[in-house]
Amino acid sequence: MRRRRWTLTLALATAAALTAPPALAASPARTPAEAPPPAPPTAPPTAVTGNAAGFDPLLPSSHPVELREAPRPLSVTYTYEGQKHTLDDYLARTGTQGFVVLDGNDIVLERYVTADRDTLFQSWSMAKSFTSAAVGIALGEGFIDSMDDPVTKYVPELRGSGYDGVSLRDLLRMSSGIEWTETRDVPFVHVAASLGYPLTELAKQRRRGWEPGTRFEYTSMNSFVLSWVVAEATGTPYHSYVQKKIWGPAGMASKAYLGNDSNGNSMGYCCYYATDRDFARFGLLYLNGGKANGRRVVPASWVAESTRPSAPFNQGYGLQWWLGADGAFSANGLGGQLIWASPRHRVVIVKSTLATLFAGEETDAAFEAVAAEVARTRG
Q: For position 194, what pLDDT does the model report?
């Protein structure tokens, strides 16, 4: 599936309204191609502790996945809408601040602008793919019985809301049936949560708008509810479960932060602050079928199901993962954040930026060209 138009629409709608949690003040919302280089990304201050309101820390793994620095020349060109482009042109026009390309565990290309390998980039909705992984692990461990269970089996507080009777499967594939317009509703929800209003209460206020399981409607609240399910089903706060089951076992090498609503509820739909190398490690985890350092982290069956079409009404979306050509899949965030993986070429690409409104529709073409060149130059 080609680059989603909702990303551009949402970026336009939220440029003025959307803010990060108070402790994570937002940087400028857009970076025109003709403007000077973007300002450095805003990351959580070093004084923040696990008890601070706004976000929770994720600690590095005791056995990080090794990424070897193995740069090699890559001559990348591609054609989009009849015009030939280069990778350098694409990265400049999209205001890219962090760019990492993995050939297996080898870093074959890594670039930063007003940032470096230690910069913590905001994930935005790439977080949804982490939440999907947490659901899959909880399912594999038996904390969740079935994707077809109603959400109220695990979160009875949602009885009487628009989520009453909705299955976990329909949450995962963005077909919950609740009344929701992403460009209108997520800015309000995000700002309210950033100011300390409980996301749990906001979820209870949602109303049914259409029959679940009948169409696709991208809905960030679905992802928060899934993170709530994980917490309730496992008896462990979402961020703690991510630490224990994903961040540590997947071999993440740096400390990261996960946004919450200041009421103990991780956002789930957004707000991982992490290095591009660790985002790349997450893509590599999925490219390797859910294994890291030879150890099973995510069930292989969940990786496979998450990265294939989840419904006849949307062939371009899995279970909180976007799907592309030739089996490629990606975790996408507002303004151009991407973890992109190509099973065909065995390549992972991570792109981070404050926000871009340019060239988004040609990203698939650019990344496919990069992956093909990596494969071509492989020794």
A: 87
Per-residue pLDDT, 52: 62
> What one-letter code names the amino acid at 333?
G
Local structure of 207: helix, strand or coil: coil
The rounded distance, in Å, linking the Cα atoms of 314 and 48 is: 41
Q: What are phi and psi of 8, to 5 degrees?
A: -65, -45
d(CA 215, CA 97): 35
What's at 68, amino acid-wise? R
Strand runs (DSSP E) across 95-180, as ranges?
98-103, 106-112, 121-122
Edge-to-edge strand ranges of the sheet holding 329-333: 68-69, 106-112, 98-103, 347-352, 337-342, 329-333, 322-323
Strand, coil or helix: what is 57? strand
pLDDT of residue 43: 53
What pLDDT is recorded for position 356?
73
Spans of the chain, pLDDT less than 70: 1-52, 357
pTM for this structure?
A: 0.90
Q: How far is CA 272 from CA 57, 126, 241, 293, in A?
A: 10, 8, 14, 23
Query: Which residues have C-beta within 8 Å of that of residue 82, sequence separation ≥ 6?
Result: none
Coil, helix or strand at residue 265: coil
